[in-house]
Specification:
The chain is mostly helical. It has 17 helices and no strands.
């Protein structure tokens, strides 16, 4: 009995030891993957998510989102069967990035504005990458078409909209809020939004780096290549083209390595962006307080299939190839984003300065 009890106590430590041993074994590959992930965080994730995250937190803290949702009361309550104050959260989740919707839903649950059951259902259609990231990935998948991102954006957003509409009949009609809304704004609210956004970005980038280390281990073990070859044998697609999508299943930022026929890439890209990758769902799990995101994870599977079909139907309308001179030089370098890293550095410095203000000791009175 004592041996069994000791074994149970040691069980949680086994994965940690295995992870540490694997990092030592694949240290070089893990370091290379982390370096790429860090560059991606600085050039793409922080510029596209930080401002939206801070603005979203500010809307919630100041009750401004409730004021925005008031004109859409009839639309949100009778069409989507969701509280009028939740409709702005639904819209923000489609624009601000993957974990923002989960964070806002968690805030509403903590304040008692929605129930646990509502939080689990609403999260199913509040997971989206945001237009900035969709445009960046679409420009890589279809570099010769300026409007290709529209088909991907409509597919991902349309899928969430469809999920909200199809699930509406199974939800009770929410009551109309009659209390008077008094939005407030103070310096503490702005500082709190900046601090909360910095915490969220630290968590998101940290999870990306952890997953990058795992990707380095998987890469050296040949797991990712093996899965790509296996899928290639089941289809007619070359393993090298499947490889980025296998990697993006674990961490969605790996979509930056896709290449091939854009008409085939864009529907797959829309499906993967709709799913989000395991790293995204780990981030969502980290910000969910008081409710489980498992229902949302399961819901992402049919949603990804729907996004694939919708994007496939929309490609002929929005995919147009620009005429390029045959003498133009061709570059093999993968473009991650058109954002300058300097913007991210400035944002981080501003956040550090704001957070450091509360640590400055007040001068003693004479």
């Amino acid at each position: 009995m004592k041996l069994t009890h000791k074994f149970k106590e040691l069980c949680p430590a086994v994965p940690v030891f295995l992870f540490a041993a694997a990092l030592i074994w694949a240290g070089r590959e893990a370091a290379q993957e982390c370096a790429k992930a860090a560059a991606l965080c600085i050039s793409t994730l922080i510029p596209s998510l930080y401002a939206f995250t801070a603005a979203s937190k500010l809307l919630i803290e100041t009750d401004t989102y409730r004021l925005i949702g008031r004109p859409f009361s009839l639309f949100s309550r009778y069409i989507f069967r969701m509280p009028e104050e939740f409709f702005p959260v639904f819209v923000i989740s489609q624009l601000a990035g993957y974990p923002i919707g989960a964070a806002l839903i968690s805030s509403m649950l903590e304040s008692g504005r929605i129930t646990r059951a509502q939080a689990e259902v609403f999260l199913c259609f509040c997971i989206a990458p945001g237009p900035a990231y969709i445009m960046a990935i679409s420009s890589i998948a279809a570099p010769d078409s300026k409007g290709a991102w529209i088909s991907v954006m409509l597919a991902v957003t349309g899928t969430n909209l469809l999920a909200a509409l199809l699930s509406a009949p199974f939800r009770p009609l929410p009551e109309k809020f009659t209390e008077k809304i008094r939005p407030k704004l103070s310096a503490e609210d702005i500082t709190g939004a900046a601090r909360s956004a910095a915490d969220s970005m630290t968590m998101i980038c940290g999870m990306v780096l952890i997953m990058a280390a795992l990707m380095g281990i998987f890469s050296k073990a040949g797991l990712l290549s093996g899965i790509s070859v296996l899928i290639s044998r089941m289809t007619v697609v070359h393993p090298a083209q499947i490889y980025p999508f296998v990697r993006s299943f674990f961490e969605i930022s790996n979509l930056s390595g896709v290449f091939g026929d854009p008409t085939e890439l864009l529907p797959l890209t829309a499906a993967m962006l709709c799913f989000g990758g395991l790293c995204v769902h780990m981030q969502i799990k980290a910000v969910c307080k008081g409710f489980s995101p498992l229902k949302a994870l399961i819901c992402r599977i049919p949603c990804s299939l729907a996004a694939f079909i919708i994007c496939q139907r929309l490609i002929p309308k929005f995919y147009t190839v620009s005429v390029i001179s045959v003498s133009a030089p061709v570059s093999d370098e993968i473009r991650f984003s058109d954002f300058s890293p300097m913007l991210s550095i400035i944002l981080l410095i501003m956040t550090i300065l704001i957070l450091s203000q509360k640590n400055i000791a007040k001068p003693e009175k004479m």
